[in-house]
Amino acid sequence: MSASHERSTLAPSLSDHARRLRGAPVPRGGHPLPDSARTPRPRGTGPRLGEARARVADVLRSLLDAPGTDPEAALVATGIRDRAVLRAAATFDHPDEEAVRALGRRLVRTGTTLVGVAAGIGLLSVLGEPQDVPYLRDLGMFDGLESAAVEALAPLDPQAAATVGLAHRARETGLRALADALVSGLAGDLRALVVGVSAESHRDVGPDQARWIAEATRLPALLRAHPGDRELFAQAVLLLTRMTSRRDYAIALLRYGEARELYEAITARVAGEAPATGLDRQARLLSLALDLHSGASRLLDWPPGRREEALGTLLAAVGEPTEPDAKADAHPRTRRRAAWIRSTASRLRAVTASADPPPAPLPARAEPGPVSRLRIEVAVADPGDLDAVETRFLVDGRPLVPWAFGPGPGDVPERTLDTGALRAGDEPREVRLAEAYCSEGCCGALYVTVRREGPYVVWGDWSRPGAPRGLPDLPVLRFDADAYDTEVARAEQDRGWSWPARDTARLIARGLRERPELLARWGLRLGWTGTDFGDPDATVITYDDLPPAAGGAQDVQPRQYLWLLPDDGAPPERRAAAALRRFAEEDPRRYPESAG
Question: Using CA atoms, how far apart are residues 185 and 173, in angstroms rounded to an integer?
Fold first, then answer.
């Protein structure tokens, strides 16, 4: 008698195709699917995602009640394709887990279409076991199945999941060589392959690629096996730093099971050594220290006191920028990076020297709990990397945004602090605390309502419009009102993190908020302000056309204008005053330095 997951037809399964390709180099984007695996999309508009999930769930339940039915034919007959089928299967709930697992295996091992196999992978993403790994790994090499396979493999075999991810997304030459070696099963000299990856560019090695490299090569163990290898150590520090980046749809560091172990291996290496030399090493060690203090790294499962020890070890290893790094005639980016190391290390040493109570878990329920402690800090990223400036909120010692919102960092201080948005007044106000790294309109944001209730300030009525599912429920937080007001005022007045171009932007924005008629007379309103992403020494002011008045031409799309002010060496106060005078005298749309 055949097992329930055996093939009911003689048609070649997609798994058979995948097995024949095992070990072959995977083209970027994956092996093309055989034509027989594709099913035509029905004409017309398909159902909405919620309706599609419900329809597929109904079919899956009927298949469990009628085991003689061809499951793949039934799924294809729904007319729902690929991603919707997969999501529905991954969230499908049924009391008989063994029957669901058997159905998933039947679809994965005998399915001949993308629709059927995707549904099977979705079921195994919840109920898969180690015996399913070879099938998921092979199928994941196909175009269209990578994300599903990685998600299903991650809890079962992170190394296999990482290999699939790298096989699809490696574009840099060294990373391609590593991926091909892992796919073939003949990795050889892993140390040389890891060091051979050029990871300087976010474009070539982003946060997920960095995590996959670490997972696929078991980086902490590899680092311990080469205790004197400076090149491998530098690469490990760079990869861990990249994993802390918020330029991704989720925090790679928190999805890396050996993150704390890699931190331990790095701090063990630098403990007792002379302070680092060279801006790259200093900046990256400092970036790790900063994330340990107020970023996602603080959320790792640290034994009591161990995070503080690791933070102290990293800060001691940073040292001071040395000549010629900070010479007046050095490249502006070099001087900027040296200044960032001095400023950030000094501020971090000062704040960590003060009493820092151990972090307490955030309340698990939505009801008001005990009075919490709030600390607000502005974190400026390494100028040599792509991350920029964010506001961080430590609630009872724990970073709020990485825990509550995955797709992006805390909002910029120009929005959270310079506008007084966090002040608790008589009327409740909604405040945006974080935005997805792409944009709010794309992947969401985190909002909270701030209100004053007698002797307390309360954060509640949380909202995450557009954010992914699966984020934790957020508690109502209560703060002592006097302590809250003091902390917000301290954070607003603290400009030690800033630099001249950023100060110029703040002063111009403040002047335009105080005198809105400067832009209104030209039919404009203030947009965002800050510094240029590629050149932090250049000030950026944006302004938008006012929306058309009622009864006006509604088909005219308002435009946004960007005014770039390169650094001319003048003090921020003088530059801001000159900019405000120019707004009063000349239509900003006509500035030659302004782009629409």
Answer: 19
What pLDDT sits at residue 86?
67
Cβ-count burial of 388 within 10 angstroms (0-12 exposed, 13-18 middle, 19+ buried)? middle
Establish how many alpha carbons lie within 13 A of residue 241's alpha carbon, considering only the half-sphere containing its beta carbon: 28
The DSSP H or E segment spanning 536 is none
pTM greater than 0.85? yes
CA distance 140 to 212: 15
- Which residues have CB under 8 Å from 124's CB, separation 6+? 101, 104, 105, 108, 132, 136, 152
Cα–chain-centroid distance for residue 512?
A: 33
Q: Which amino acid is at 73?
A: A
CA neighbours closer than 13 Å in the CB half-sphere of residue 299? 21
391, with CB counted inside 10 A (0-12, 13-18, 19+), is buried
Q: What is the pLDDT of residue 46?
A: 67
Contacts of 232 (CB under 8 A, 6+ apart): 191, 194, 195, 222, 223, 226
At residue 581, what are phi and psi to the nearest 5 degrees? Answer: -65, -40
Task: Name the residue among 147, 144, 126, 123 with its Cα closest to residue 57.
Answer: 123
Regions of the chain where pLDDT drops below 70? 1-11, 43-46, 49, 82-88, 322-330, 355-369, 386-387, 549-556, 596
Looking at residue 560, its amino acid is: Q
Tokens representing residue 310 in the block: 């690791």
State the Rg of the chain over Cα: 27
What residues form DSSP beta bridges with 457?
452, 479
Calpha distance 137→157 (Å, rounded)? 10
User: Could you tell me the two tokens for 559?
Assistant: 């435009």
Query: Residue 589 half-sphere exposure, CB side, CA atoms within 13 Å?
Result: 13
Helix axis angle for 82-90 and 49-65, nearest 10°, is 60
Helix axes 259-270, 306-318, angle to 10 degrees: 50
Query: How far apart are alpha carbons 283 and 342 in whole angstroms?
Result: 10
130, 104 Cβ separation under 8 angstroms:
no
Nearest alpha-carbon partner for 393 in 434, 423, 429, 424 = 434
Quick one: pLDDT at residue 460? 95
* Token pair 């969401």: residue: 444
